[in-house]
Design a protein that fits this description.
With 161 residues, this protein is mostly helical. The protein contains seven helices and three strands.
């Protein structure tokens, strides 16, 4: 319960309260609610760089065509209030824009596709830096698969979960 309240605090951009609630949850049951790693934006970007190096070459190459955006948590406009299962508030990453298959030569003036990584949610999904690295790698792999044209069913078939 405290973990969910922490997420709500993060969504209100109240990181101090979010961290306090996570610390309380850890005090109550450290095995079930270990405090997640918290990295500075620079440290987080370094872990992203490491995760990118672990991706297959085709996926690393695809990143050249996609804008990578780091946000603490999803903005309110990104969360579909009619279908929270589609974009839940604790989502780790989000692909926005046309896939490589949908993009044509005439689309050169269109904004590039984007992958959003949500730092606080990725940290919350991890118990240490190594697990955070893996979560980022899997999330990038997942979102880049969407860019390459895979739908959710196709991505699920890749065994990334």
């Amino acid at each position: 319960m405290l973990e969910r309240l922490s997420l709500l605090a993060d969504l209100r951009h109240d990181q101090a309260t979010a961290d306090r609630l996570l610390a309380e949850a850890e005090e109550i049951d450290a095995d079930e609610a270990p405090h997640p790693p918290r990295l500075s934006p620079q440290q987080f970007e370094h872990v992203i760089d490491e995760a990118i190096e672990l991706l297959p070459e085709e996926y690393r190459d695809a990143l050249e065509d996609v804008r990578l955006v780091i946000e603490a948590v999803p903005t309110e406009s990104m969360i579909d209030k009619n279908d929270c299962a589609e974009t839940p508030p604790d989502i780790l990453g989000l692909f926005v824009g046309p896939s490589k298959l949908e993009r044509g030569e005439e689309d050169s003036a269109v904004l590039p596709s984007q992958i959003f990584l949500f730092q606080r949610n990725l940290e919350r999904a991890s118990i240490d830096r190594d697990e955070l690295l893996n979560e980022i790698r899997v999330t990038l792999y997942h979102e880049l698969a969407h860019y390459l044209g895979f739908d959710e069913e196709g991505v699920a078939g890749m065994g990334l979960e």
